[in-house]
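Technical annex, item 7. During the second reporting period the consortium partners agreed on a shared format for inverse folding records so that results from different sites could be compared directly. Each record opens with the tokenized structure and is followed by the designed sequence. A conforming record, contributed by the partner at site C, is shown below for reference.
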């Protein structure tokens, strides 16, 4: 039986789909005002493992991941760059898809952009107003009244009675601290800071608040009640708390979502998460420039349970890189095996692997089982290859498709020229050679020994 930690109940629960054989899940996607960082990708790797395991277990999965292309930050930064909101966010949406493909994250069924679903958001807000859960403020914006919803805070465990005094105040910003948990904006009346970003509605000229976006898009594609909602733990106190309140108030279904899954932060120093807002983040492109394959980072994430903080260091990532490379080499070696496959011999390890993933997606223990299997001298090489491919598919390590890269003499010559340029501190020439290598379909990264080349 698959067991998941449900943030809503703060307990490990047996997973039982609302509709037999089918799972509907929603993942909070990126806000596309900058390149996503590797901390963001920990969350998407986590939901990808969940989806892969559900599919492996026989479920038909429908996954939706939103793209937040309208909020305070996208407006602010598009104006800074003197670009239209659409053109500004398009760049980061493209980069996001390139990154998730590189990380072997399976594509969701739908990637709705918030700006395409304004009508759905307006309808949801109208329903909340008609039911008495929302009202117009003096500034013309529409707010959700948290005190009208008795269950407010059941996810975050915040009590309305404990909200900050003077809390008749309202919060118009998309992001705020839990202690400020007052009435939040569903529709923001236009002001001069919004520039040309607005929509006409029955409420007047304005734009949606961040929280209503997810409720509208999730309901549009997954219905009035669905199985799983994924995101980072930073979404618990405010964003997901507000999603539940406005959705259950409007729709009347409780619970709106049956299971809430949240991953812990990627940290650069103890207790401090990686974040764009703190300007302490690393992109996937940076890792590639340093000689790491995107799947090295994926392997690194698998080594720690998703609910535990993950401390990032290049030394630890180097260890993951070496381990993954050993797996790849092993697959290439075992692929040539001529001995016979004995499915009965594989059973012990498949059962153990299944037991570990069934235990709240315990990928670190599942990886340990894979390594134990490879050391088992009683298993044939053919059995080991089959098990590696099966387990690798669940973990998203793409072991079924690995092959030795054949690097041409031309690429090797360019790489040597670049290494010489770096040793001479000719950085411009080094960058030009790196770009030329990339144009030819390869990525070069710097290592302690010199460089590493792989196909793009």
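Designed sequence (site C submission):
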């Amino acid at each position: 039986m698959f067991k998941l930690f449900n943030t809503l109940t703060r307990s490990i629960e047996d997973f039982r789909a609302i509709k037999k054989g089918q799972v509907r899940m929603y993942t909070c996607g990126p806000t596309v005002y900058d390149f996503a960082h590797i901390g963001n990708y920990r969350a998407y790797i986590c939901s990808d493992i969940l989806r892969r395991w559900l599919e492996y277990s026989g479920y038909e999965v429908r996954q939706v991941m939103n793209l937040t292309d309208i909020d305070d930050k996208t407006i602010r930064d598009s104006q800074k760059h003197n670009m239209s909101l659409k053109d500004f966010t398009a760049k980061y949406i493209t980069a996001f898809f390139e990154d998730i493909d590189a990380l072997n994250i399976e594509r969701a069924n739908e990637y709705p952009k918030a700006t395409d679903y304004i009508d759905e958001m307006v309808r949801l807000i109208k329903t909340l107003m008609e039911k008495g859960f929302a009202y117009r403020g003096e500034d013309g914006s529409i707010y959700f009244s948290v005190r009208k919803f008795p269950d407010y805070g059941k996810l975050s465990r915040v009590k309305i009675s404990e909200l900050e005094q003077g809390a008749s105040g309202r919060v118009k910003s998309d992001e705020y601290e839990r202690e400020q948990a007052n009435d939040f904006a569903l529709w923001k009346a236009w002001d001069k800071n919004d520039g040309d970003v607005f929509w006409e509605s029955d409420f007047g000229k304005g734009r949606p608040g961040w929280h209503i976006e997810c409720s509208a898009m999730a309901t549009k594609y997954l219905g009035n009640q669905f199985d799983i909602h994924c995101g980072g733990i930073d979404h618990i106190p405010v964003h997901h708390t507000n999603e539940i309140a406005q959705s259950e108030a409007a729709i009347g279904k409780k619970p709106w979502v049956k299971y809430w899954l949240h991953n812990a932060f990627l940290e650069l120093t103890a207790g401090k998460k990686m974040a764009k807002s703190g300007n302490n983040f690393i992109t996937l492109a940076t890792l590639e420039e340093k000689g790491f394959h995107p799947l090295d980072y994926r392997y690194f994430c698998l080594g720690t349970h998703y609910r535990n903080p993950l401390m990032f260091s290049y030394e630890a990532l180097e260890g993951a890189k070496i381990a993954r490379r050993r797996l790849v080499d092993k697959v290439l070696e075992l692929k040539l095996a001529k001995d016979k496959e004995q499915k009965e011999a594989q059973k012990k390890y498949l059962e153990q692997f299944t037991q570990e993933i069934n235990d709240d997606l315990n990928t670190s223990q599942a990886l340990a089982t894979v390594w134990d299997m490879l050391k088992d001298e009683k298993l044939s090489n053919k059995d080991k290859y089959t098990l590696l491919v099966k387990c690798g598919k669940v973990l998203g390590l793409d072991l079924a498709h690995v092959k030795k890269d054949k690097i041409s003499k031309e690429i090797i010559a360019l790489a040597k020229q670049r290494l010489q340029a770096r040793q001479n501190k000719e950085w411009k020439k080094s960058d030009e050679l790196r770009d030329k290598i990339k144009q030819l379909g390869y990525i070069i990264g710097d290592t302690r020994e010199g460089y590493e080349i792989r196909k793009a």
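Confidence is low (pLDDT under 50) at residues 176-180. The domain at 3-263 is CATH 3.40.50.620 (Rossmann fold). All partners now use this format for quarterly exchanges.
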